[in-house]
Design goal:
Layout (H helix, E strand, L loop, with lengths): L2 H39 L4 H16 L4 E6 L5 E8 L7 E3 L4 H8 L3 E3 L17 E7 L4 E8 L9 H43 L8 H15 L4 H12 L10 H4 L7 H7 L2 H8 L7 H8 L21 H15 L11 H10 L7 H15 L1
Antiparallel strand pairs: 1-2, 1-6, 2-3, 4-5, 5-6
Helix pairs in contact: 1-4, 2-4, 5-6, 5-11, 5-13, 6-10, 9-10, 10-11, 11-12, 12-13
């Protein structure tokens, strides 16, 4: 082999190597972006995913007009879940010969770099270019991601379409998971409400009690600055705080005379019974403990485990105030309800003994709203 041929061969090898390095770099960048996107979307609600998706696309591609269109499960149309720029926030597209529907049904991006010279020029009069990218989940198409021209005026490249396909796919999977989570939450909450109705159907004296305690407890927690996750779990705890009464004889719940000591002791077992009923729900230990300890007292003179102060879970301390207030404000077979000012006064009197003073302070700040 001559020196010239050898040099040409080396240059060709160097060129091939440079091309391979460039391609590997592109692949690495794509994988990094996909990993970042998958981490960004993990555990979010549908609305949060849409907001993140819009931000990512706007940042990466420099476009002003973006629309996230989701399929309506009940009607043959897609609706605008979130948009920016020149896209109408209330835009609804009925199933038809439309770029968005073409993308969804063909499961393929629809790209028009010059919309004026396309069959869709009348549909998008204010846009110069458009890409509609399908958002396909594992089981079905969920909608489409639509973008307009770049703010810089540059044309779309194949890499742009490739990026949109990747991020649309990740967003679709995340939205699919979020839908499933919503369904499971709905099923769980429905089960909780079934338990509540089963408890309250046993005695008309306690009808609506759990829902009212839940409303009071949520307001107190919000006033105390607790985050939404805590408040959501507190609501479940408050709804189920009396679930143990399902094992209490109905004749005790409806007894008009003063309860005997042994009868009072049996009724006082309901927090422990409730915690036992829900004991197998391991991920909800905080809720179970809130139920178990909601009759403990701040000064340690409670009925069961004599927990004191902050050793009593906060959920239980909040429910203790909400529960006592609603009980005093409700008729019982053995007494009439107390006036609101008297019930409020009782809560104040027992602050620092039966009740957590911080919880009582929060209750006093919201009581007028609760009673209005």
């Amino acid at each position: 082999m001559s020196a010239t041929s050898s040099n040409n061969h080396i240059r060709q090898l160097q060129s091939d190597l440079d091309q391979t390095v460039h391609e590997l770099s592109d692949v690495y960048e794509e994988i990094s972006i996909l990993y970042h996107i998958s981490q960004t979307f993990a555990g979010l609600t549908v609305d949060e995913i849409c907001n993140k998706l819009l931000d990512e696309v706007q940042t990466m591609l420099g476009v002003e007009t973006i629309a996230i269109m989701l399929v309506d499960e009940e009607r043959p149309e897609v609706y605008t879940a979130l948009s920016t720029g020149g896209w109408k926030a209330d835009e609804v597209i009925t199933k038809s010969d439309h770029i968005v529907w073409d993308a969804i049904e063909k499961n393929k991006p629809q790209v028009f770099c010059d919309i004026k010279n396309s069959p869709h020029n009348n549909t998008f009069k204010k846009m110069k270019a458009i890409i509609a990218c399908p958002m396909a989940g594992k089981k079905k198409s969920l909608g489409a991601l639509v973008i307009g021209e770049k703010s810089s005026g540059e044309e779309f490249y194949s890499s742009d379409t490739k990026f949109l396909m990747a991020i649309s796919s990740q967003a679709a999977l995340a939205i699919e998971n979020a839908y499933l989570h919503q369904e499971l939450e709905g099923f769980f909450f429905g089960t909780v409400m079934a338990f509540v109705k089963a408890i309250e159907s046993r005695s008309h004296w306690t009808s609506g009690h759990s829902e009212r305690v839940t409303r009071y407890a949520a307001a107190i927690a919000r006033e105390m600055g607790m985050d939404s996750e805590f408040r959501d779990r507190l609501k479940i705890c408050a709804l189920l705080h009396d679930i143990g009464k399902i094992a209490t004889p109905v004749e005790l719940l409806d007894k008009r005379e003063t309860l005997e000591n042994d009868e009072l002791t049996e009724i006082e077992q309901h927090p422990l019974t409730g915690a036992t009923i829900l004991g197998e729900l391991k991920p909800f230990k905080d809720i179970t403990n809130g139920i178990r300890y909601h009759h403990e007292k701040w000064d340690g003179n409670g009925v069961h485990e004599k927990l004191k102060g902050e050793a009593i879970p906060l959920m239980a301390r909040i429910i203790a105030v909400a529960d006592a207030f609603d009980a005093m404000m409700s008729d019982r077979p053995y007494r009439k309800k107390l006036p609101a000012d008297r019930a409020t006064k009782e809560i104040q009197i027992n602050s620092g003994t039966q009740f957590d003073p911080d919880v009582v302070a929060a209750f006093m700040n919201v009581k007028n709203t609760l009673l209005s």
